[in-house]
Amino acid sequence: MNPRRRNPPWNLAILGLLAILSTAGCWSRGPSEVVVYTALDSEFSEPILGEFTKQTGFVAVPKFDTEATKTVGLAQAILAERDRPRCDVFWNNEILNTLRLEREGLLEPYQPPAAAKFPATYRSPEGTWHGFAARARVLVVNTKLLPEADRPRSIGDLADRKWQGKAGMAKPLAGTTATHAACLFAAWGDDRAKEFFRKVKANDVRILSGNKQVAIAVARGQLAFGLTDTDDALVEREQGQPVAIVYPDQGPEGIGTLVIPNTLAIIKGGPNPEGARRLVDYLLTADVEAKLSSGPSAQIPLHEGLPAPARLELPADFKRMDVDFAAAAARWDAAARFIREEFTGAE
Hints:
The protein is α/β, with parallel strands linked by helices. Helices cover 38% and strands 16% of the residues. Strand 1, helix 2 and strand 2 form a beta-alpha-beta unit. Helix 5 packs across helix 12 and helix 7 runs parallel beside helix 8 (230-238). The longest helix has 15 residues, at 9-23. It is globular. It starts with 8 loop residues before the first helix and ends in a 5-residue tail after the last helix. Residues 1-28 have low confidence and may be disordered.
């Protein structure tokens, strides 16, 4: 061996020390890094976070989870890390898991400059969470299978024997479908909500792994209709698929259509509180909501005075479900226990 290529003993010692430190996880991240646990799909959130990095110099580092478990999985990670937080900002694509973290005392109050531009319904009075960029829970209908006069108009149609085996929904244990279930438990009470879900199961409603899969199955004619989110339904419609969107329960006796915002929360004790505040400030700007509403994610803007694109309707344009999100968060565990027993599998 060429002696000039041999590593001197002191160099080997340094390399060994570096290996030990790396294995032990002793590296500290840079002061400009902001870790954001993100439930909004990566193709929608990463461009927004990239622009934040470009404008501010803070490097947004996202952590994602799977489509089937993302909101629950990310919230569980924050709970597991409560003694040593790794997350700075939780960007949730729904609200109830954010409120569950609030109940655990894991959220840091902060009042961004733009907070007052959003409806009080969709923000914490204490500043522990802020809602923006919403979606509505809608029925997506295959127009080739169902002429307009025959289309379902209520989430109750999922349990109607007329539609046995012809409808679908995502597994109601994660994401907006789990949020919807907990909201029904809060609005209807346990007995009525349990009766509804038992009827849904008895009606052979097809349980799929996510809202996107529901919209695709309807578009392909595998289902006549399904319960999904506006963004997933719009993707199919804008790709030219034979689907229509129905905002359910709009009649005088209807409970209205549930609107679920994305939520932002700063994690108490997170490593970069300054960067976290800068990120929340940025995400609550009208410019970001406009991009999320006009882009492929098709989020409904909640920012005061911001118009919706023609393809979307604002909550003021339809009958919105009046729900106490805090009460729904309190019913989350009971709803999840019941549903876990009723819906044991998904395709």
